[in-house]
UniProtKB/TrEMBL annotation:
This is Flavin-binding monooxygenase. It holds the Pfam family Pyr_redox_2. The keyword Oxidoreductase applies. Gene3D superfamilies: FAD/NAD(P)-binding domain (3.50.50.60). Residues 30-253 form the FAD/NAD(P)-binding domain. InterPro entries: FAD-bind_Monooxygenase_sf, FAD/NAD-bd_sf, FAD/NAD-binding_dom. One of its GO terms (molecular function) is monooxygenase activity. It comes from the Bacteria. Keywords: Monooxygenase, Oxidoreductase.
């Protein structure tokens, strides 16, 4: 039944005591799924001033999200550290302009301890399903051990890049040597002197290939499509930098603001301003020409699609590494993996000792493999059968009081995703404040008409942009872009600054409502 049509809808009971209860404040309960940057941002916002009781459920043994999982050699952020951090927890002693994985993970731990968030987290608890209870207007999250957590608010914060993807190539399981995904790096495997196959040339591969080639005997990189790579102007921060950031907070704030605006310019290049895109493309191709002198190799590494269609990468080490004698690039399609190596479409068998998959993540499979059941038993997989969608990237019709962090169409191709996560957390806090004002349990469900208008706008903007011009992890198999936000961070923050209650239906428990309609 659809609340928007009035068929089988429910309304507030006419009993006088219901109205009188609305003035009694209540403390909402929230269950957050995931203890990475997004989940901790939500926990921080909801616990300020004691607004809500928060439990964060994390399936792994510790907090940290993708920065706990991705420990491959050279793992680092491609957004400057001053911006890739919480606004409420500025750090003045980053080791580098672009922080590496240990520094980022340490920052997450320090922030959790500083703001008392660690005590809210239950680690080793994997949520397998969550269902909305119409009778109580609450959510029940069930774990793999059978434990159940009840809450007024359900906040999935598992992100888009948490489930490694392996390619659909025959024979993957037949390889006799060590093989692993870059997000599940096998540090017990010694690469020294070994023949290593790397499948993929994305954001992870361009970081770990330059590191492993220094010890490996030979690295063969199997490339499906060449990325655009611009120089990464990285450097180590000195004590003088740390002192300046610490002693002059305004300087650090100004640097953060400047970096933000630069990333917004990059966003304009990828979404709206063609001259900026041409300039960015020239920068990337100049970087390629500067480091790759071999015309055959340069041709292999020249992208054949518009810049921005796939993620633009940042590295000053990638091309120099590929030019080394112990690194080769293969562009023939892979037909199978055998017990001894990788066979390509030209008939050659590339014999190797180790296979590393730098093949990305199941970014478009939001919330999988969890089973999410909303109002009146609606399955989220049914709602998302044509691709994931959510109002403002957070709210889904039919799923009251469920708000996602880093949900559909909130990824950025240019700036810090933490800016988006923090804004979503602030928006969800406004929902919690509304819930706290009422004396009875209730829920907010985005009106389908409101959401459909929003989604149509987002998809129209995406369809007219660069992200639909080639295959990438931004798109589903049907071609729908479900990951990226089509605008700038400033626009998203403006549109989510205030909770527009009129965009939502108030859904009350069946125990305090009367049914009208069939």
């Amino acid at each position: 039944m659809d609340l928007q049509t009035g068929m089988g809808c429910r309304r507030r009971a006419v009993a006088p005591n219901v109205g009188s209860m609305t003035s009694i404040p209540r403390r909402p309960r929230a269950v957050v799924i995931g203890a990475g940057f997004g989940g901790l941002a939500a926990a921080y916002e909801l616990t300020k001033g004691g607004l809500a009781d928060v439990t964060v459920l994390e399936k792994a043994g510790d907090i940290g999200g993708v920065w706990r999982e991705n420990t491959y050699p050279g793992a680092a952020c491609d957004v400057p550290s001053n911006l890739y951090s919480y606004s409420f927890a500025r750090k003045t002693d980053w080791g580098r302009r672009y922080a590496e994985q240990p520094d980022i993970l340490g920052y997450i731990h320090d922030t959790a301890d500083r703001f008392g968030l660690r005590g809210l987290v239950r680690t080793g608890v994997e949520v397998t399903s969550a269902s909305y209870d119409d009778g109580t207007a609450t959510w029940r999250a069930e774990t793999s051990s059978g434990e159940v957590f009840e809450a007024d608010l359900l906040i999935p914060a598992v992100g888009q890049l948490s489930r490694p993807a392996l390619p659909s190539i025959p024979g993957l399981d037949t390889f006799a040597g060590p093989s692993f995904h870059s997000a599940q790096w096998r540090h017990d495997v010694d690469l020294a002197g070994k023949r290593v196959a790397v499948l993929g040339t994305g954001a992870s591969a361009i970081q770990f290939v330059p590191r492993i080639r220094t010890t490996a005997g030979h690295v063969t990189v199997f490339q499906r499509s060449a990325p655009y790579v611009v120089p990464k102007l990285d450097r180590a921060y000195t004590r003088a930098h740390h002192a300046a950031f610490s002693k002059f907070p305004g300087f650090a704030a100004a640097m953060r603001a400047a970096i933000w605006e630069i990333t917004e310019l990059l966003g304009l290049a990828l979404t709206k301003v063609a001259p900026l895109a041409r300039l960015l493309r020239a920068l990337a191709l100049g970087n390629l020409k500067r480091h790759i002198k071999d015309p055959v190799l340069r041709a292999k590494l020249t992208p054949d699609y518009p810049i921005g269609c796939k993620r633009v990468l940042f590295s000053s080490e990638w091309y120099p590494a590929l030019a080394r004698d112990n690194v080769s690039v293969e562009t023939a399609a892979i037909t199978e993996v055998t017990p001894t190596g990788v066979r390509t479409g030209d008939g050659r068998l590339h014999e190797v000792d180790i296979v590393v998959y730098g093949t990305g993540f199941k970014a478009t499979e939001f919330l999988a493999p969890m089973t999410i059941t909303g109002r009146a038993g609606r399955d989220l997989r049914t709602e998302w059968a044509q691709g994931a969608h959510a109002h403002l990237g957070m709210a889904v019709p039919g799923f009251p009081n469920m708000f996602l962090i880093y949900g559909p169409n909130t990824n950025l191709g240019s700036s810090s995703i933490i800016l988006m996560m923090e804004q979503q957390a602030r928006y969800i806090r406004q929902v919690a404040e509304e819930l706290a004002r009422g004396g009875v349990a209730r829920a907010f469900e985005v009106r389908r008409a409101v959401h459909e208008a929003y989604d149509a706008e987002v998809q129209a903007r995406l369809d007219s942009g660069v992200w639909t011009t080639c295959e990438s992890w931004y798109r589903t198999s049907s071609g729908r872009v479900t990951t990226n936000w089509p605008g700038l961070v400033h626009e998203y923050q403006r549109r989510t600054a205030d909770l527009l209650v009129a965009d939502y239906l108030e859904v009350f428990p069946t125990s305090v409502t009367e049914e009208i309609g069939a």
